[in-house]
Structures are given as C-alpha cells and as structure tokens.
Amino acid sequence: MVEATLVRRGKAPLATDEVAPVTNDIDIAERQQALEAMSAQQRVAWGLEQFEDRIVLASSFGAQAALMLHMVTQEWPDIPVVLVDTGYLFPETYQFVDELTERLKLNLKVYRNPISPAWQEARYGRLWEQGLEGIELYNQVNKIEPMRRALDELGADAWFAGLRRQQARSRQDTNVFTVQNDRYKIHPVIDWTDRDVFYYLKEYDLPYHPLWHQGYVSIGDWHTTKRLDEVDDAEETRFHGLKRECGLHEKV
User: Given 246, 248, 249, 252, which residue is catalytic?
Assistant: First the structure.
C-alpha cells in the first residue's frame, strides 16, 4: 500500500531505513522523537505515507514560503495548498501567489470568510484598530474560521506548516509533530535556520517574497505588518506589537 501510494505520486519507494510509516494509532511522544532525528525531506515523506490524501499544506505565501511549497510538492505535486485570504494581503503577496502557483503548478485552494472585507468594516469598523480584542475578533473571522472550514471540506486529518523555531519566541518550544484540535500537524523545517532557508532557496533558484527585500521579515496583512526598521524588536512587526501569532497555529 505504501509503495503504491508513492508510485502514484511519481516518486520511487523509499528505503525502509529512510522512513518508517506507523499505524493510525500514533504515539505522539515517540513519533516526535523519531521525526526530530530525520531530515526535513524525510519528515515530509513520512507525513505523506502516513496520511496519504488526508493531508494538506497550509501556506500564507509569506517571506520564505517558496521553501515549503517546493519541498512538499516535490513529493506530491497535487497536494492541496490552502491559502487563507483575508482580503487585506499586500498587492505583492497576491502577485507572489500567482507567480508560485504558475511556477510550481500548485493545487491552490483559497478560503475566505463569506462576509466581504467591506461588509465587515461596515458591521464592525476597522477591527485591527480596536486594540487586542479587535485584532482577536479579526483573526477569528478572517483566519481561524476559514482555515477550519478548509480542513473540514478537504477531509484533512493532518496538515503541513512551515513554522520554524527561529522565527519567534512563541515558536521556540514548538514540536516537529503535534496534535492541534484533533488534527495532526507536521512542521518539517521547524529546526531550520535562516541560513538553511537561504541555501535551499538558492539551490533551487526559488524567490523570497518581494517585500523581503524591502525589510519585511514577517508578512501578513498590510494594515498590521511593519518593516523591521519601523520597530524596536522583530516580534513587533505584526499586530502593532500586541501579539505575535494570528491564531492559526494555536486555535485551528
């Protein structure tokens, strides 16, 4: 069964000492330890073997998004790639989405809240200007709800995410494999450094997000994202420094 799955995805079967698929009865602690010892590519291969077509890749198409998009689609070209579109992404982000979707032939699945941004503003005002409570509601409506719906509709038991421990203090204790709201999450590049990312992108001639070169190290919505030179700490480049995480990696 494992071999047939890999052949269907256009990949040769992996040697038994490279990846050891487990049953659906997963011992989380044991699997965390095993995956920590693997390379990022082996972690991706294990996730695809374990969950087959019940796994998706989530991407914000942020600064270094090309890394995970390339790495995962090398193993399964047709994996569903979920983008949550708030309607307030930078124009450069939408252009980056188009560029990578065409170049990597992505099976892109875009999810949004059914209430348009203009209608939300009419109903709630500019939530991102209403302190932490407003930002929390904004994220719930525009990020968490659409992502939950995406996972439900796509029948996902698991998802890949490109989190790295070096990105933020809130991610320093993140495990390579975890359970979040009854779904498994795999972070293949969790232990990668900025240098690792640079060399991977260079090796495969992959681009950074266009705004990376303008000093944006973490890229979300235009109204709550700042350049590094506009703040005292990298943690303050998002959400006016009131918080770091949008909730996708905490509440979905």
Answer: 246
